[in-house]
């Protein structure tokens, strides 16, 4: 069972959705699912030992099996990025519009990003760039720690 199915938040809010595994992002437990009229992509972020924050891949394979940033055109309505770090848990719920605005999704005029770093509200001692990123990301973060 994948982590996302075991979280009370998912079970309560999404009523055990049917998950579509994204094999190319198995390391990040990549899945997609529908709930009501919205399409969701879910990723588990990884803690990195030498840098603050958590890293998550944001790529998919193109027709030639080459890695590329997620495209805006094919992006789901909401991308969920889960943080599970010992007793600290939370989820970022990024609408596709904010990912476009922050140049994370690929379009014909922007390259997009193959991965991003996320900074939950409990992260501190961040450099100026990370603080600016944490500021905009905090509007999309829900702490689930008990």
TrEMBL record:
It comes from the Bacteria. InterPro entries: MepB-like, MepB-like_sf. This is MepB protein. The lineage of its organism: Bacteria, Bacillati, Bacillota, Bacilli, Lactobacillales.
């Amino acid at each position: 069972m994948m982590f996302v199915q075991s979280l009370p938040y998912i079970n309560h809010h999404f009523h055990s959705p049917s998950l579509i595994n994204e094999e190319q992002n198995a390391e990040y437990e990549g899945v997609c699912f529908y709930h009501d009229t919205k399409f969701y992509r879910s990723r588990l972020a990884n803690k990195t030992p030498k840098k603050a924050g958590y890293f998550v891949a944001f790529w998919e394979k193109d027709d030639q099996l080459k890695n590329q940033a997620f495209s805006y055109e094919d992006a789901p309505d909401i991308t969920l990025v889960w943080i599970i770090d010992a007793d600290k848990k939370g989820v970022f719920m990024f609408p596709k519009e904010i990912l476009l605005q922050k140049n994370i999704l690929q379009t014909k005029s922007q390259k997009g990003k193959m991965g991003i770093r996320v900074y939950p509200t409990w992260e501190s001692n961040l450099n100026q760039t990370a603080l600016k990123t944490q500021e905009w990301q905090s509007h999309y973060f829900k702490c689930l720690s008990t």
